[in-house]
Design brief:
The protein has 247 residues and is of the alpha/beta class. Helices cover 38% and strands 24% of the residues.
C-alpha cells in the first residue's frame, strides 16, 4: 500500500531538502549553487511524484505549466526551492521546500521543509498553535521587499517588523510562535504559499487574502496578489486595520 498523501508530502520535502544540503556542502560558487538547487530539487520531486502519484497533475515553479492540471481532480503544487537567494548565502537558514496537494478546490495535504534548521512541518502531524503571548505583535515580512501594507499595520498596531527570506520560513515562524503574523502584498505565485498555507491551517492559524477573502489554488493564472497568515485571535483586528486603510 502506498503512503498517505500527507506522509508523502513530508517525505518528498525531506528528500529534496537532503539534496539541497549536500549541494550547499559541495558547490562553492553562489550562482552555480542557486541554479543547481532549483534544478536538482525539481528533479527529486518530479521523479518521486511520477513514481508514486503518476495520475496526478503537478504545478511547479521549476517546470512548464501543463494546462491539463485545470481539469485534473488532484494537483500537486510545489516549490522545489523557496528562497533561492537565501539558499545561496552560506549562513542563512530561511529557505524552504514546499510540497502541497490540491483536490477538488481545497488544499488537503502539505509539507514545508526547512532543511538548514533540520525541521519539516506537515499536515500529517500539525503543530498546535503557540500559546498567546504579551508584548508587541511581530510581523514577518520580506527582507528585500517589505510591503507598504505591513509598515502601515506596524504603525497602527505598534507592531514590530521581522524581516526574513522564504515565504515558507515566514509562515513557519508564525506556526512556531516566533512571529504573530505574516503579511505579503507584493504578489506571489501559488507555489509560494500553497504548502505553507496548508500547514498553517492544519495548525489552526488563519490564512486568507488581505481583504479576508479565501485563497484559491489551481487557477488558470497561478498569480496570487496577497496573503495573510496569522494567529486566529488577531485575524479580525488585522483585517479591520487593513480594510480601514484600503477604504
Amino acid at each position: 500500500m502506498d503512503e498517505m498523501d500527507s506522509a508523502l508530502a513530508r517525505r518528498l520535502a525531506d528528500a529534496a531538502g537532503t539534496v539541497l544540503l549536500e549541494l550547499r556542502r559541495t558547490v562553492r560558487d553562489r550562482d552555480a549553487l542557486r541554479a543547481a538547487g532549483d534544478r536538482r530539487a525539481q528533479e527529486v520531486l518530479d521523479r518521486e511524484l511520477r513514481a508514486h502519484r503518476p495520475a496526478d497533475a503537478v504545478l511547479s515553479e521549476e517546470a512548464p505549466d501543463d494546462p491539463a492540471r485545470l481539469s485534473a481532480e488532484r494537483v500537486w503544487i510545489v516549490d522545489p526551492l523557496d528562497g533561492t537567494r537565501e539558499f545561496g548565502e552560506p549562513d542563512r537558514t530561511d529557505w524552504a521546500v514546499h510540497v502541497a496537494l490540491w483536490r477538488a478546490g481545497k488544499l488537503i495535504a502539505g509539507a514545508v521543509a526547512l532543511p538548514a534548521l533540520g525541521h519539516t512541518y506537515a499536515t500529517d502531524g500539525p503543530v498546535p498553535p503557540p500559546p498567546a503571548r504579551t508584548g508587541r505583535v511581530r510581523i514577518a515580512v520580506s527582507r528585500t521587499r517589505p510591503p507598504e501594507a505591513a509598515s502601515h499595520l506596524a504603525s497602527t498596531m505598534d507592531a514590530e517588523l521581522v524581516p526574513m527570506g522564504s515565504a515558507g520560513a515566514k509562515t513557519m515562524a508564525v506556526v512556531r510562535g516566533e512571529a504573530d503574523l505574516y503579511l505579503h502584498s507584493g504578489g506571489q505565485y501559488e507555489w509560494d504559499s500553497a504548502a505553507p498555507v496548508a500547514v498553517a491551517m492544519a495548525a489552526g492559524l488563519h490564512a486568507s487574502r488581505l481583504d479576508g477573502g479565501a485563497l484559491a489554488y489551481n487557477s488558470p493564472d497561478p498569480y496570487l496578489p496577497d496573503l495573510l497568515v496569522c494567529r486566529p485571535e488577531l485575524a479580525d483586528t488585522v483585517l479591520g486595520h487593513l480594510n480601514g486603510r484600503a477604504a
